[in-house]
UniProtKB/TrEMBL annotation:
<dbReference type="InterPro" id="IPR001387">
    <property type="entry name" value="Cro/C1-type_HTH"/>
</dbReference>
<dbReference type="Pfam" id="PF01381">
    <property type="entry name" value="HTH_3"/>
</dbReference>
<feature type="domain" description="HTH cro/C1-type">
    <location>
        <begin position="4"/>
        <end position="61"/>
    </location>
</feature>
<dbReference type="InterPro" id="IPR010982">
    <property type="entry name" value="Lambda_DNA-bd_dom_sf"/>
</dbReference>
<protein>
    <submittedName>
        <fullName>Helix-turn-helix transcriptional regulator</fullName>
    </submittedName>
</protein>
<dbReference type="GO" id="GO:0003677">
    <property type="term" value="F:DNA binding"/>
</dbReference>
Length: 64
């Protein structure tokens, strides 16, 4: 997900730091970031807790 990568970059986080924030492996994070895997409900809950001000719709879903 290109938007996830953009979000991570704006937060000044490495892929490893982002994976740790979400409590997932680095390989799982890369699959999310590249769009090979969709986020689970549990992952989206962890994302919301880690980044409460983020708009998850813009990060995870195609809004165009």
């Amino acid at each position: 997900m290109i938007k996830l990568k953009e979000f991570r970059s704006k937060q000044h986080l490495t892929p490893l730091e982002m994976a740790e924030q979400l409590s997932i492996s680095l390989s799982q994070y890369y699959k999310l970031e590249e769009g090979y895997k969709k986020p689970s409900y549990e992952l989206m809950e962890r994302f919301a807790k880690s980044f409460p001000k983020a708009n998850m719709r813009l990060v995870f879903f195609d809004t165009e």
